[in-house]
Write a structure and sequence with these properties.
The complex is a heterodimer of chains A (about 325) and B (about 190). Chain A has about 325 residues and is α+β, with helices and mostly antiparallel strands. Chain A is built from nine helices and 13 strands. In chain A, helix 1 (about 10-30) packs across helix 9, helix 2 runs parallel beside helix 8 (about 275-280) and helix 5 packs parallel to helix 6 (about 180-195). The two termini of chain A are about 15 Å apart. The chains are: A alpha+beta (about 325), B mainly beta (about 190). The interface of A and B includes residues 183 and 230 of A.
C-alpha cells in the first residue's frame, strides 16, 4: 500500500503556522520589511561544501540551466544595495544532501539583514527571537577560542596543524586521508566539545578560513578572525550570522577560490554571480545578517526529536 | 572489488573494516551548514562481535565484504572443526573452526539448524536457534517433596551447557532452554 500521509501531525502543522505568525509579528514590531526573492536563479552559492539542485529545461531548441537557491543571500544583498533598508525573508532553501535527523534537502529558512548592526547587536536580536519562541531566559556567548580553551586547553588560532591532527586522532578514529586544518577543528567542535554541552550557546569570532561571507578582523589577541557567529541549541546548529563582507574585490577573490577548488575536485562549477558583484560595487550598506533554520527552531519549540516530525512531507515521500 | 560510498551507508551494510568483515549498526551524518560533512559509523565486527566507531569524510568509500547468512544443519565435530551442511539439498558441507563456533559451542545438537555467517564462503560465526531442546547429562538427584518450589540447581546438558533448573529435573529429562539468556523454560518429556 502506497503511503501518502504526512509525516507531521496536525498539531505540528498548527505549531508551524503559529511559529511563522510569531516570527512575522516579531519583525513587524521592529519595522523590518518582509521580502521575497527568486528561488530559481542563473547561479548559486559557490561554497565548496554546499551543492545545489540544478534544473535543466530543454523546451524547444532553447536549453536553460537554473539553480534552486541554497539560501536567499545573494538576492537579498542586491536588495540591500538598492536601498531596501533592513529586510527579512522566510523561504524555502534547497541543498543536495543526505537526510539525517536534522537535515532534509528542502527546508525553511529565515534570513534577515539589519543595517548598522554589529555582530553583537545581531546576536542580541537572535537571542530575543529564539528566547521568545522557546521560553528561554538568555543564551551565553563564547568566542571560538574560549570554547577550545575551556574544553581542550588549546588556542585554535595558533596551534600547529600537526598538533591539531594528533589531538583529533586521539579522540576520533578517522578513516582515509586528505584532512585539512578546518576538518580537524570542525570534528573537535562537533564530536568532542559539543557532546559535553547542553542547552543553547553562541560561538563567535571563527578562524579566518571559516569566514564564508563574513568580514575579517583582528581580535584582542591579534588573531585574524571571521566576524561570524553560530547559535547551537541541544547540539543542533540553529543560526549562522555574519558581519557582512561588503568589499567587492575580496568577495570576487573568495568566489574565485571556491570555483577553482570546485574545478579541481570535479564539483560543479557555477557561473560567477556578476550581478551580486556589480551591486557590491555600488555599495552594500554596513550590516549584519543571519540565516536561521525554521524547521529546527520548530523542533526546539515542540520538542520534536527528528526533522521528519515537523515537515509534512520530507523529500523522500514528497 | 565492489565498494560502497558513504552516501550508500545504512544499517546492515556489510564491508571490510581494517580487514575484518563488519556490519553497520548505526550511521549518522554530521553536516554543518558551512564545512565538510562526515559520517560517524558504528560497526559490528562479524567475527568477534566487537563494536567499533569510525568517522569518515563524506565521499570516502569502503570495500564491500562478501558476507552472507544461511541456515545450516550441524553434523558432528572432529575435535578441531565443527561440520555443518547446507539445507538447500546440495549436501555441501562446511567446517567452522573454534573462533567461529565460540558462543554456539555449548548448544550444538546434531541435526538441529543453526544460522551460519559466511565470509568468502567460510563460516565466521554460528548462532544457535533462540530455543533448543537438550537432554540433561548430569545433575544432582531431585529432592522429593520439593517439586514446584522455588529452589534451583545446576544441570549439565548433553551439549555441555550448564543451566539452572528446578529441583525436580532429573538426568535424562529433555529441557527447552533459551540460548540467549541461558534460562530454563520447561521440561519437554519426562
Amino acid at each position: 500500500m502506497m503511503t501518502w500521509q504526512p509525516s507531521a501531525s496536525l498539531k505540528m502543522l498548527k505549531a508551524r503556522a503559529q511559529l511563522l505568525a510569531s516570527i512575522r509579528l516579531f519583525f513587524a514590531e521592529r519595522q523590518v520589511l518582509e521580502v521575497e526573492t527568486p528561488l530559481l536563479a542563473h547561479t548559486t552559492a559557490s561554497d565548496i561544501h554546499i551543492q545545489s539542485w540544478r534544473g535543466v529545461n530543454s523546451f524547444g531548441s532553447n536549453t536553460q540551466t537554473k539553480y534552486l537557491q541554497t539560501s536567499p543571500e545573494f538576492a537579498m544583498k542586491r536588495l540591500l544595495c538598492s536601498g531596501s533598508g533592513s529586510i527579512y525573508q522566510i523561504c524555502k532553501a534547497f541543498r543536495v544532501e543526505e537526510n539525517s535527523r536534522c537535515h532534509n534537502p528542502e527546508f525553511t529558512m529565515l534570513e534577515w539583514y539589519r543595517l548598522d548592526f554589529s555582530l553583537a547587536d545581531l546576536m542580541q536580536e537572535v537571542t530575543q527571537l529564539v528566547c521568545q519562541m522557546t521560553n528561554q531566559a538568555a543564551i551565553p556567548r563564547y568566542t571560538y577560542r574560549e570554547v577550545f580553551q575551556n574544553y581542550l586547553d588549546i588556542d585554535p588560532h595558533t596551534i600547529s596543524t600537526d598538533a591539531l591532527e594528533q589531538m583529533t586522532r586521539d579522540h576520533i578514529e578517522l578513516v582515509g586521508g586528505e584532512f585539512q586544518r578546518n576538518d580537524f577543528l570542525q570534528l573537535l567542535l562537533s564530536e568532542v566539545i559539543e557532546p559535553h554541552t547542553r542547552g543553547s550557546w553562541f560561538i563567535y569570532d571563527y578562524p579566518e578560513p571559516q569566514a564564508a561571507l563574513a568580514q575579517i578582523a583582528q581580535d584582542d589577541l591579534g588573531a585574524s578572525v571571521a566576524r561570524r557567529f553560530e547559535l547551537f541549541c541541544n547540539g543542533m546548529e540553529i543560526a549562522n550570522g555574519y558581519q557582512e563582507l561588503a568589499d567587492p574585490v575580496e568577495q570576487q577573490r573568495r568566489f574565485e577560490l571556491d570555483l577553482a577548488y570546485r574545478e579541481k575536485h570535479q564539483l560543479e562549477v557555477y557561473p560567477l554571480d556578476e550581478r551580486l558583484l556589480a551591486a557590491l560595487k555600488t555599495g552594500l550598506p554596513p550590516c549584519a545578517g543571519v540565516a536561521l533554520g525554521v524547521d529546527r527552531l520548530l523542533m526546539l519549540v515542540t520538542g520534536a526529536t527528528g526533522i521528519d516530525q515537523v515537515l509534512n512531507f520530507t523529500t523522500d515521500i514528497a | 572489488m565492489a565498494t560502497f560510498s558513504t552516501n550508500e551507508f545504512k544499517s546492515g551494510l556489510k564491508a571490510l573494516v581494517e580487514g575484518d568483515p563488519c556490519s553497520i549498526m548505526e550511521n549518522e551524518v554530521v553536516k554543518p551548514g558551512k564545512g565538510q560533512a562526515f559520517n560517524r559509523v558504528k560497526w559490528r565486527n562479524l567475527k568477534t562481535g566487537r563494536v567499533l566507531e569510525r568517522t569518515y569524510k563524506s565521499g570516502e568509500s569502503v570495500e564491500a565484504a562478501d558476507v552472507m547468512e544461511m541456515d545450516m544443519e550441524y553434523l558432528y565435530t572432529d575435535g578441531e572443526f565443527w561440520h555443518f551442511m547446507k539445507t538447500d539439498d546440495s549436501y555441501e558441507q562446511l567446517a567452522a573452526d573454534e573462533a567461529a563456533i565460540t558462543d554456539a559451542k555449548n548448544w550444538l545438537k546434531e541435526q538441529d539448524i543453526y544460522t551460519v555467517i559466511l565470509w568468502n564462503d567460510a563460516p565466521i560465526s554460528v548462532t544457535p536457534p533462540n530455543f533448543v531442546e537438550l537432554e540433561v547429562a548430569e545433575t544432582d538427584p531431585g529432592l522429593k517433596g520439593d517439586t514446584a518450589q522455588g529452589g534451583t540447581k545446576p544441570a549439565t546438558l548433553t551439549s555441555g551447557a550448564v543451566v539452572k533448573v528446578p529441583l525436580f529435573v532429573n538426568i535424562g529429562d529433555v529441557l527447552r532452554v533459551d540460548t540467549r539468556t541461558n534460562e530454563y523454560q520447561n521440561r519437554v518429556t519426562k
